[in-house]
Write a structure and sequence with these properties.
about 350 residues, 17 strands, Rossmann fold, six-stranded parallel sheet, seven-stranded mixed sheet, Quinone Oxidoreductase, Chain A, domain 1, globular, alpha/beta, 10 helices
Length: about 350
């Protein structure tokens, strides 16, 4: 049986988000229905709401950093019970049969994963709606167990900003003795620093803003390099095993390549689009430019467990649902440290 859910939605690319009621699809035997308590606000939400990437399907209920309690479960659900603290990240399904899915890398599903919002359900073709809502529904295989010891309102961004930076840290085997640099100190960058530090890496922040040094050190950075200063950039030549570039807009990668160590990798996790670089320093040092996006379900669960063990959460500013449009504008100005999270109590009270 379908039922009505109150949410906030973008009805087109030009208008602010407004209250919106949608019909949640009928629950299937493997489904978990979640009462949403908190939802992070990601740059992707803004891009999708405003159709910056050209494939938005309206109406859009954004939100893919979702934390809540299990409200009800389907008859075949074995992984969760009513009342469990759980999360949903950027995906709610995948084909489950391709090579990527068999490797636990559903984010790279060859048939395309089903996004938490803005997609069509692969079973009944109903639209998927995200976390700017009272409730959300998904298969138990795409729901995550959340450690109860963490500050609940600060967990949500781990499900996107956190996993987006954790996945390359794990793929490139970062640990004690690794030298990691992070480009940009925002929602992704601050999580990259925290996680790399917790993995015992030596962490450096590349930034264009000298006033971010103390914040970076407070988050766990060992060093801060002003990327606009040629002398400072030269001082870190051939140093880094991994550079995580979190900058979400087109920017010059060439200054960073010489700072990579032999066989080092610069991985793009923030920017979608074309870029140019010089192959000479890459060839002369077997250096790579790579890309990475979120993580699989098993990997995301491992991250949540790691955060529970190390008491790692995001630095957040909590807002009411009614203030989402103001938050979008502030996010465009980088006026948040470092992620907005929506407290859904006001929506539940409506």
């Amino acid at each position: 049986m379908t039922h009505n859910v109150l949410a906030y939605a973008a009805l087109d690319s030009k208008s602010p988000l407004v209250p919106y009621t949608f019909q949640q699809r009928q629950a299937r035997p493997d489904d978990v229905i979640i009462d949403i308590e908190y939802c992070g606000v990601c740059h992707s939400d803004l891009h999708q709401a405003r159709n910056d990437w050209g494939f938005s399907r309206y109406p859009i209920v954004p939100g893919h950093e979702v934390i809540g309690r299990v409200k009800s479960i389907g008859t075949s659900v074995t992984k969760f019970k009513v009342g469990d603290l759980v999360g949903i990240g950027c995906m709610v399904d995948s084909c489950r049969t391709c090579s990527a899915c068999h490797q636990g890398l559903e984010q790279y599903c060859e048939a395309g994963n089903t996004q938490t919002y803005g997609s069509l359900d692969r079973h009944d073709q109903t639209p998927t709606y995200g976390g700017y809502a009272q409730t959300i529904i998904a298969s138990q295989d795409f729901v995550l167990k959340v450690p109860e010891n963490l500050d609940t309102q600060s967990i949500a961004p781990i499900l996107c900003a956190g996993i987006t930076t954790w996945s390359p840290l794990k793929h490139w085997n970062v640990g004690k003795g690794s030298k990691v640099a992070v480009v940009g100190l925002g929602g992704l960058g601050h999580m990259a620093i925290k996680l790399a530090h917790a993995l015992d890496a030596e962490v450096t922040l590349f930034t264009r803003s000298a006033n971010k040094e103390q914040d970076a050190r407070d988050l766990g950075a060992d060093h801060v390099v002003l990327s606009t200063d040629p002398t400072q950039m030269k001082s870190v030549k051939n140093q880094f095993d991994l550079i995580i570039d979190t900058v979400p807009y087109d920017h010059d990668l060439k200054p960073y390549i010489p700072t990579l160590a032999l066989s080092g990798t610069l991985v793009l996790v923030g920017y979608l689009g074309e870029f140019s670089s010089n192959s000479v320093p890459m060839i002369m040092g077997r250096k790579s430019i790579a890309g990475s996006v979120i993580g699989g379900i098993q990997e995301t669960q491992e991250l949540l467990d790691f955060c529970g063990q190390h008491n790692i959460v995001s630095d957040v500013e909590v807002i009411d649902m009614q203030n989402i449009n103001e938050a979008f504008e502030r996010m465009l100005q980088s006026d948040v440290k470092y992620r907005f999270v929506i407290d859904m109590k006001s929506l539940h009270a409506s």
